[in-house]
Write a structure and sequence with these properties.
The complex is a heterodimer.
Chain A (H helix, E strand, L loop, with lengths): L2 H21 L5 H10 L9 H25 L8 H23 L9 H24 L3 H23 L2 H16 L4 H19 L7 H22 L1 H6 L1 H5 L12 H24 L2 H21 L5 H24 L5 E2 L2 E2 L7 H16 L29
Helix pairs in contact in A: 1-2, 3-5, 4-5, 5-6, 6-7, 7-9, 8-9, 9-13, 12-13
Chain B lengths: L2 H12 L8 H9 L3 E2 L1 H25 L1 H4 L1 H22 L15 H23 L8 H17 L2 H14 L7 H5 L4 H23 L7 H19 L4 H24 L3 H54 L4
The chains are: A mainly alpha, B mainly alpha.
Chain lengths: 396, 323
């Protein structure tokens, strides 16, 4: 990231915070304007709707242009994969240059176009590399880890240079997949997250790093810890899931041996450890991961131990969850100034209207009832009919 | 935790831009010394409602014979009643304007009560068939009752449930709009369009009459999505019929984009632009024919996409959508 881009991101963080303070009524419009003047925006930005539209249409335009060039040069539809790979590599490099220019001299950020060109740059370069790797290594056992490693390097470079945390997450995931192809792949999935987690935790709040790099560290940490949980999970151990990803020889592990018991203990303990660390340090990513892994471990428990019928498990867990939330809210609100141990149930500077709109949208998607079937008058079709009625299937 | 904000707050407080009495709280939040779990608690309540209603669904499906219909119906009814009685007891007085929730759980207990009552009604309908062949009317009953509850208790979530239930009564799944696109049934298509028009008009009425005007975005957005998906589903037809539906989508999408541009309705503007572009492209690709479609199609999509990008940048400069 260039120093200018980092400076712009730091100022943006303050402006965003000021906007949330204004939403909560802590400051007035004049004070918000004063903060904006003190931390000015030197970037050209778009609103969320225009950003999404520009992102989509840029992807569309870029890929159509590549297709058009391919068709014009006569490569499309032929077996000249090498020429297509060279073309993709050139296009990827050109798009990387365009992204760099947009984020640099053109001072664009959150504009949609530069995000789309960065994605296409990585995709085209990776596509070209993929062609060469697969062309030279006919066995996917060797080609996939090489390609994952190249992808991880490309994504890491993009995250570092352009400040997109999503690429950092993709880089971490690519590295884990590549490591799964090594001997003792599962061990790598355990050792690497454990070794890097303390450093990533520190970096994710380091004032020395710009906001985008801090966010990248948080995303890498989340992917690494999710990988760690997958590696120590009892079900993953029994199914040899990591070995399957690594396309390595699978051996069904004996149930009830030391490793099985270790996996069982880790499946139960890891959510507890994550939640404890998250609560102790008030670290949001750890709390989210702790909650997510806790749900996964409870589902695992249900898989192995049939405590009750499914409907009882669902209804009771829902009721218990709601009761826990009620109790937690009461506990937090009854504390001094409505807080306990640095946690509060008050919204503070969050925008509740936005959350409610999201909930309403989610309700349409998740709670909408099944539509009734509309029967129409059948159109005349030649070619014979079918027998039916009275429960008959119409097939003999 | 945000180190940049933590660094800025003391400077802003010193220069008098941030009120000195608010600075300590802002600083604590920025330093990560105080963390709000408000959104997370709401999310967990929503998940709790989903789990309970999911469990009820499985119960009704799998345990009809073992438990007995009367026990299930009575159990569901009692649970719904308990939730709704609590809601009625703590609900603030009615107002046509937006009413703040009395507490964090209010919306979710109301949602749970409504869903359990609807499940009970559906169960009674399946088991005892009081409406017989006219059973779809129970969806309308649920939609109306849910709508009334949404208005009385000022709940956007329940209002969205009312709209989607009404659409379900007309055979349209609002939760799976994509299915409309591939529904070749003309009746479903026309019902989707009619529901969409009704919802959009309802949104306008809510704003004009200043009665629950904050429900308008839900009604209008869902309405336009249904209209556009309904029209787009016609494009899957072949020949002249498909072209006619494409032309209709082009006209409606362009009109929506123009209207949304005028009234600064950004999501609706996006719906209109995408719909008009898809319809225009569909018409052109068909006109090109299969032989020329490959080369000219790529040319068309690259050039027109770039033109749309330029148009969007110009439109954003004029509209200045908030970040």
């Amino acid at each position: 990231m260039t120093p200018e881009l980092a400076r712009a991101a730091r100022a943006e963080a303050v402006r965003n915070a000021a906007r949330s303070w204004r939403g909560a009524g802590v400051i007035d419009d004049a004070q918000l304007t004063a903060i904006r003047a003190r931390y000015p925006d030197d970037r050209s930005r778009m609103g969320p709707v225009f950003r999404v539209l520009l992102f989509l249409f840029t992807l569309f335009a870029g890929n159509a242009l590549f297709g058009f060039i391919g068709v014009l040069s006569g490569i499309g539809g032929t077996d000249r994969g090498d020429v297509l790979a060279v073309l993709a590599l050139l296009a990827g490099m050109a798009l990387a240059f365009v992204t760099d220019v947009q984020l640099g001299s053109l001072r664009r950020r959150q504009g949609g176009i530069e995000a789309a060109t960065s994605l296409m740059a990585i995709s085209y370069v990776l596509g070209a590399m993929g062609w060469w790797v697969f062309d030279n290594n006919h066995s996917s056992t060797a080609a996939v880890p090489i390609l994952c490693l190249i992808g991880a390097l490309l994504c890491a470079a993009a995250a570092w240079r352009w400040g997109y945390p999503l690429y950092a997450g993709a880089a971490a995931a690519g590295l884990l997949v590549a490591l799964s192809h090594l001997p003792l792949g599962r061990l790598w999935w355990i050792v690497l997250p454990l070794a890097t987690a303390p450093l990533l935790l520190r970096l994710s709040v380091s004032p020395r790093l710009p906001p985008a790099h801090r966010a990248s560290c948080t995303v890498i940490l989340s992917v690494a810890l999710a990988g760690l949980y997958a590696a120590v999970h009892l079900g993953s151990w029994e199914a040899q899931a990591i070995e399957e990803i690594g396309e390595r020889h699978k051996q069904t592990p004996p149930g009830g041996d030391l490793l099985w018991w270790l996996a069982l203990a880790a499946t139960a303990l890891m959510p507890v450890i994550l939640l404890a660390l998250g609560l102790r340090g008030r670290r949001y990513p750890l709390l989210v991961l702790g909650a997510g892994t806790a749900v996964a471990s409870l589902v695992t428990l249900r898989w192995y131990v049939h405590l009750a019928p499914l409907w009882v498990v669902l209804a009771v867990s829902g009721a218990v969850l709601m009761a826990v939330v009620f109790a937690l809210r009461r506990y937090l609100e009854s504390g001094r100034d409505g807080e306990r141990h640095g946690f509060t149930a008050a919204p503070l500077f969050q925008d509740p209207a936005r959350g409610r709109l999201l909930e309403a949208g989610a309700a349409v998607l998740t709670l909408a009832p099944e539509a009734r079937t509309i029967h129409e008058e059948p159109k005349f079709e030649g070619g014979g009919g079918q027998f039916g009625g009275g429960g008959a299937s119409g097939q003999f | 935790m945000n180190p940049d904000v933590a660094q800025a707050v003391p400077e802003l407080a010193e220069s008098g831009i941030v009120p000195p009495e608010a600075a300590p709280l802002l600083l604590r939040v920025a330093r990560g010394e105080l963390l709000s779990v408000h959104g997370e608690l709401r999310f967990l309540l929503y998940v709790g409602v989903l789990l309970i209603t999911g469990g009820v669904g499985v119960l009704v499906k799998e345990n009809l014979d073992r438990i007995g219909p009367v026990v299930i119906a009575a159990g569901l009814g009692l649970a719904a009643l308990a939730a709704l009685v609590w809601v009625v007891r703590v609900a603030p007085p009615f107002s046509w304007r937006e009413v703040p929730s009395p507490n964090l759980a209010f919306d979710y207990v109301l949602l749970l009560g409504v869903l359990l009552a609807a499940a009970d009604l559906a169960y009674l309908e399946v088991k005892f068939t009081p409406l017989g062949a006219e059973w779809p009317w129970h969806l309308l009953l649920v939609a109306l009752a849910t709508g009334l509850a949404a208005v009385r208790f000022d709940s956007r979530v329940v209002f969205s449930l009312a709209l989607s239930t009404f659409a379900a009564w007309r055979g349209v799944s609002a939760g799976r709009l994509g299915s409309i696109l591939w529904a070749h049934a003309g009746a479903v298509r026309w019902n989707a369009i009619a529901c969409g028009v009704l919802f959009a008009v309802l949104g306008v009425v809510l704003v004009r009459t200043r009665r629950k005007a904050h429900f308008e975005p839900l009604a209008v957005h869902l309405g336009w999505l249904l209209i556009l998906c309904g029209l787009a589903s016609g494009m899957t037809e072949s020949g002249r019929t498909g072209r006619a539906w494409s032309a209709a989508l082009l006209v409606v999408g362009a009109a929506l984009a123009a209207g949304a541009y005028r009234f600064r309705r950004f999501p609706l503007f996006a719906f209109g632009v995408v719909a008009a572009y898809v319809a225009l492209s569909r018409l052109l690709v068909e006109a090109l024919g299969t032989e020329a479609a490959e080369a000219l199609g790529c040319f068309w999509f690259s050039i027109t996409s770039i033109l749309v990008i330029i148009g969007l940048i110009v439109a954003q400069r004029r509209l200045q959508e908030p970040l």
